[in-house]
Amino acid sequence: MGVEGVGASVARKEDKRFITGKGRYTDDMVVPGMKHAVFVRSPHAHAKIKGLDKSAALAVSGVIDVLDGKQLTEDAIGNLICGWMIHSKDGSPMNMGVWRPLAEDTVRYVGDAVAIVVADTKAQAREGAEAVAVDYEELPAVTDSMAALADGAPQIHPEADHNQIYDWEIGDAGEVDAALASAAHVTELNVVNNRLIPNAMEPRAALGLYDEAEDHYTCWTTSQNPHVARLVMSAFYNVAPENKLRVIAPDVGGGFGSKIYIYPEEIVCLWASKRTGVPVKWVADRTESFLCDAHGRDHVSNIKLAFDSDNRITAMKVDTVANIGAYMSLFSSSVPTYLYATLLSGQYNIANIHCNVRTVYTNTAPVDAYRGAGRPEASYLVERTMETAARELGVSPAELRRKNFITEFPHQTPVIMAYDGGDFGASLDAAMKEADYDGFAARKADSAARGKLRGIGMSCYIEACGIAPSQAVGALGAGVGLWESAEVRVNAVGTIEVLTGSHSHGQGHETTFAQLVAERLGVGIDTVNIVHGDTDKVQMGMGTYGSRSGAVGMSAISVALDRVEAKAKKIAAHLLEADEADIVIEEGELKVAGTDKTLPWFQMALAAYTAHNLPEGMEPGLKESAFFDPTNFSFPAGCHICEVEVDPDTGVTDIVQFVAADDFGNIINPMIVEGQVHGGVAQGIGQALLEGCAYDPQSGQLLTASYMDYTMPRADDLPSFTVTTTKTESPSNPLGLKGCGEAGAIGSPPAVINAITDAIGNNDLAMPASPQTVWAAMKA
């Protein structure tokens, strides 16, 4: 490791522009003739559109046009799709309802777009939108997933009887039922995983530009994967041919999954630009973000966990109902199935697992992947149940977990996943040491003396990152491959450009990717430029989500670097009249090992491009590309321990200690990794204590549509985190990386709730555990 190479805590290169206000976000983009758009959105959760009168809006000063769903259909713009096919257990395909970018006949949630108003200014567009008169025939609405399945519930899509999208299962139900019947002890829980609203710092935005002279489209957008956006908009939505569509995702201010998808707004802005002849920009206000961004979580589950007389787990049975919202978003079908049920084994050796999942339409915003995407739901279910089982059995929660840990690898779970490595006991030991777990009783007594209730809880999570290989996920229903691409260009003066299909929206790629190059080629990170987010510059890529940028994206860069390094050594060996095997690269030079013969990196690069003296048959230049498709998921894992004090008079919970011990494999930049853990834990604590999306069950109105009603974690809600790591390398990629971006949000919620329930002596506690909820649980 050098001062800037792999393993160094290098300050992020990109932060200079961010903290000085020099970032370039979609809303910063200005093109000649640009106009502004506001969407007309449904105020009803469920209604028929009987008519739409634009006349008053068109008379508003500055309004250029008002476009609606009928015009969109006339121009053959396609429906939004779900890109992961799931079949029910009877073999039938999922019931995907129609989702139009602009609703034409029926609106299905508050915020469903019905028209777009384009005007000279945003204020004029907003005034025009308010003047559009839509005649609605209001219909009954349903927002709760269990109520949506009931007989007589409002029918949301004609394609889905009883609003059920699919009824899916994994595992052997017969074996599980037999194991439950013969168990010495069965722990059963009913668990709700509360709905969340992502709330990235930067609201979504889109700028569509149609160039009539070139018959070419450009879309600037707040996307985590611009290449997928281009693919879907061309291949499925019929917006533009792929070769005539450029998608640019500049600086993006946070995503957390909610910016993976292609939303109606990008489609409509591009279409509106061609229809009106002007560039069209839309930027969401925060209320629109609350109403229309894809929400997360919202599972209702029952779990039964069977133990033998030696307290070893023999079986698990899970039944889950997942709320998908009004429409199926791009990856929504995979979240409660292959990203959730396949992780129910957790860190434990469980011979028999069966999970049944039903997904349901409701008159709410679409639900899709949110930081962790299925893994937090699985870990919360498993870890709440393990803690409960330990209390019922009268044993240490730590030792019950340890007794059931998987200890031999590779390990094939009964729910598809094949864990390729890990040391779960090491993470548990590290967390318990940092938390002074053995000293808890004394601290509890001290709290009691001060009139406070003290509790401790833990969570031992595992997740699957870098979803792969493409052939495997394709067999499971994925509509795209999940490889990644990279191109490494060494310029004639030795500076380096790395083109990557990954996309950074806060992860620090411009630093960590450059650190890998610096480690391999012996150059400074300031000579390395990372290029991403532009489909005209990077040929193709799959974007960033699921903690895949390191394990998949950087691995593609590593493979390309292998090829660059091999060619550079050939050139140096030729020029230095040495054997290629004796060439080493370090400190900006190519050297002949054991001699004083050296060639500066820039001179080798210049030689590659002047081509005056290259090895016979070698092409000029120094540029290599690679596509990398992992052989397996990577499996980060760890143990989180939370310690709380609860005020028995008010129910206010104070987190007095939080420890995270994680195994992320090899680490490129420890400081950035620690920051990722901090952010993830903050979001997990937010879910556990504060955040909860609520709809009115009768009207379908979103009751938490602003920060007045939806509580986000603030600095004084959070403790100083203790973060430590253990290491087992991932064998599925050449760098041994596992991924760290989602771990904090996966491991923390069950640790927090386990700690509170330990403190108050009541295991029946729902998230978010607000003071009122905790107080009520204490009084129950």
Account of the 3D structure:
A hairpin with a 5-residue loop joins strand 23 (589-592) and strand 24. The model has no long low-confidence stretch (mean pLDDT 97). This protein has a seven-stranded mixed sheet with strand order 3-5-1-12-9-10-11, sandwiched between helices. A five-stranded mixed sheet has the order 7-15-14-13-8, sandwiched between helices. The chain is globular, with a radius of gyration of 27 Å. The chain has 780 residues and is of the alpha+beta class. Helix 18 crosses helix 19 (743-760). It has 20 helices and 28 strands.
Report the portion of residues in β strands.
15-25%
Question: What is the arithmetic mean of pLDDT?
Answer: 97
Helix content: 25-40%
Structural class: alpha+beta
Described by the principal axes of the CA atoms, the overall outline is globular
Number of helices: 20
Q: Describe the biggest sheet?
A: 7 strands, mixed
Low-confidence stretches: none
Beta strand count = 28
Give the terminus-to-terminus CA distance: 57 Å
Radius of gyration: 27 Å
Order of strands, widest sheet = 3-5-1-12-9-10-11
